[in-house]
Structures are given as structure tokens and as C-alpha cells.
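Lab notebook: predicted structure, single chain.

Context: the supervisor wants predicted structures on file for every construct in the current expression panel, including those that have not yet been purified. This is the next one on the list. No modifications to the sequence; it matches the entry in the shared construct table.
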Amino acid sequence: MLLFAGCKADRSTVLKVYNWSDYIDETAIEEFESWYEEQTGEKVKVIYQTFDINETMLSKIERGHEDFDVVCPSDYIIERMIQNDMLLPLDRDFGDTPNYIDANLSPYVRAMFDKLQCGGKNANDYAVGYMWGTTGILYNAKYVTDEEASSWDVIRNPKFADKIFIKDAPRDVYSQIILYLHQKDIEEGRVTADELMNYTCEEDLAAVEGFMKQVKELVAGWEADFGKDQMTQELGWLNLTWSGDAVWAIKEGADVGVDLRYVCPKEGFTVWFDGWVIPKYAQNVKAAKYWINFMSRPDIVIRNVDVTGYVSASGAPEVMEAFIEEDREPIDVSYFFGPEATSVKLDPVLYPDKETISRSTIEHDWGEHTADLVSMWSGVKGNTMNFTTIIILAVAALAIIALLIARMRKSSHSTKKYSGKNSRRRR
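Prediction complete. Output recorded below exactly as produced.
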């Protein structure tokens, strides 16, 4: 035992990456290995692993189960990791290799990372934005007007009973509703959207819970992934969701003649970010920082966006050019790409215009109040399910049973390839 304890694997030629599922063009991994050798004269082999929820990743790092060199947590987890002294500051000295990080990171993303609450430390010193998006309302224009969908209040409109799907994400839902409930305070300058993200007292939790209990009576389902499918099938008319899911649903809906649209409501909304960080106990810090630099290279950014469908934190002009759609109306995205980008034909679901983004804010880690948030959410959802939800679950169960029976009948030598979609469960 003493002999084996004294033998430690050489990790100077191994880079352990921990990322969300389906969140990269995996052909870039081998390309990084070659690029790294070209830049440094050293070989490296990437061990690439994935997770589905932030807390799984965090648990492994907190308890020392895995010695990952570079990981990709969400904004509020970045806050927690920095506050708990779990990350290393990022050294941006790459010698003769260009610094793609600082050359290309969007000024908007940098400014939003400045807002992360990290115990006096600046998140930009520890994390580099990777992908981002918004939280808003996906709606069926055949049944819901643009005006109705422009306010968070639409989700408690009895006109849409049993046609509403809500993300089963208490942090995201709470943040939107607290903005709605304090809309007058925002308009009259008594509070800002950023300040509201720190409103975690019992009174505010009760106010959001009361609002959402009204919503509950109308909800067809609390969902992590299936809401967008229900929208494309017109089983749902409203969905409190993330922009990434909305883009997919809008495209799929158009293919079958369903007019789906997405809006960030007028009372304000939150944006989310994922970013690359280097854990405190990383064993190959050099390769980790080169990985982050490589992921910031414009051509790699474009490939990752094409494959994953998410929106990059890169503000490189090459990235903007790659996603111009000539049939779009021009919008002002100068906040993201710089002063020259005041009239660019981009998808406003992916890149909200300057006026819209001015209503955005960023969520924070609830820390010691997390249990209060979870308790509030349990109070909202309770233990009951409406008829629509029961039908959906029953159909899903029957589909699983049918699939299992079909698989049992297959020959043990047969294979089948499945290409599906996955929704990252951020919260």
C-alpha cells in the first residue's frame, strides 16, 4: 500500500476536461491536442467527461473525487466556487501564442461577469465566458398576441389554462417574477433589476409563491426538457423557457406550420452564462489555460456554436459575420459586438437588440438561502398534477415500455444509432 501511495501518475501530458453534455464540437478536442503541441512543443492527451447538472460537477470537485483541470460551470456556481476559494486565477500569458480570450470576449459578457458577487474578487480574473442566453416567453402566435406575451403576467391569464408550461427551475422562475412584482419600483427608481436579484427575504419569497400558486392552477406541466416539444405540437401555447429551447422550437414549429415566437418581457428578465474555470487542485494548469484560449479562437467558437446551437460569449467580428441572416431585419447589437454593430441582421432570439438587453440582469447564488428557495418551490408545486400532466406522463411511460419491449426483441448483435436533442438542466 505504501508503494502504491508513493506512485502518482504523471499528469503533465494529460488534460482532464469536465463539460456539459452535448456542449462542444468534439472534433475540436483532437485538434486542440495538435495545436497545443505546435504552440508549446509539448504533447497532451485530453480526457473529456460530461455532466448534466451543476451540482454534480461541484460535488465531485468539492469532495476531491475528481482532479479536473478545466470545467464549465454556470454563473451562480462560478460565484460559489470563487467565494469558497475553489478556483485559480487565470494566467493570460501565452508567450508567442495570441491571447484569443482578451481579444474576443464580448464587452457585454465581461460587464455581466463584473456583476457576479464573489466576495470582493472579480469573476473575470477567474472565469472566461463560454455560452450564454436569456429567459423569456415562448408563445404560439395563433392563440397568444404579441401584447399578451410581452408581460410575465401572461402566465397567470386564465384564458390559457392547461396550455402553459413552466421550467422546473426555481431560481429562474423566481428571478423573473420578482422583477414583475417590483415593476413599479423599477420604473420609479426605488430599486434596480440588479438589486432585486438579492431580494431573498421571507416577504419576497412569499410574494413570488403567492403569484406562482395562481399560475399553478393553469399549468399543464413543470418541465425540464419536454416543454418545447409540447409547443411544436400545439399542446402548449405558452412556455416560460430559455432562449436555446426557444430557437429549437421556433425552427421545428415552422417546419410543421406552427408560428412560435419568443420575447423577453418588458418588466425585465435574466441572462445566464456558462464559463471556463480552473479548479484550485488542477494538476495541469498550463494545458488548462491553453484550452480556454483555444476555445476562444473565433473559428473554434463558430464550430462549437454550429454543433451545439447555443450562443457564444465571443464578440469577435468573425463570429458576428458567421451568423448574419440576410432575411432578418437589422438590429443594434453594439453592446455585444462593439460600436460598429449598430445595424446587423442577426436572430433577435439569439442576440436581443440593445434596447431589449437594457432590461436584463444576472442571477446569483442563493448561498445559505438556497433551502428557502427550494422550500418555496415545493410550496408552489405541491404534490398534485393536473389532467394534462398526467396524460403526458402516461404517454411517456407507455412509450418507454414499448421501447423496452422492442429492444428485447432485437438480436443481441443488432445496433441502432440515435441522434436526439438534449436540454442542459442548468439549475
